[in-house]
TrEMBL record:
Name of protein: UspA domain-containing protein
Record's signal peptide: none
Coiled coil ranges: none
Taxon lineage: Bacteria, Bacillati, Actinomycetota, Actinomycetes, Geodermatophilales
InterPro entries in the record: Rossmann-like_a/b/a_fold (IPR014729), UspA (IPR006016)
Organism of provenance: Geodermatophilus obscurus (strain ATCC 25078 / DSM 43160 / JCM 3152 / CCUG 61914 / KCC A-0152 / KCTC 9177 / NBRC 13315 / NRRL B-3577 / G-20)
SUPFAM superfamilies named in the record: Adenine nucleotide alpha hydrolases-like
Pfam family, one: Usp
Domain UspA per the UniProt entry, residue ranges: 16-126
Amino acid sequence: MRLTPLLPRRQNPWLLVDVDGSPASQGALVWALREAARREATVVAVCVLDDEGDDGLTGLGRPGRRTGTVALERLEAQVLRAIAETGVSGRVRTAVLERPVFEALSSAARGADLVVVSGQGKTLLRPAVPRQPPRRLARGA
């Protein structure tokens, strides 16, 4: 009998940062590293690859291996600069994503449902409903 490992009730947060080489994205990466240190989170620095040519079969083309390697090297250089600026290390991972994958993740952050399907089952990711701030009662009420 094989038991599945028990996971803690609340997983550590993940911070997904789209790094495109702009000063704004570098600032976002620096902020995310500082926030990850504060919240014991993991930063995933992502470089998004756009489709090179549109041949009518969108989503079926693959970017070249060289394009992905160059993008990953640039991304890692930016991450090293952010680590040097913040002093926060050991909390970042890098990845190169294709545009459709990044759009699915970012649309889930904006309110769309995202269903993750794997061999272990299906999970529906939905944005949390915002909670109303608690009302405070006056003392002696």
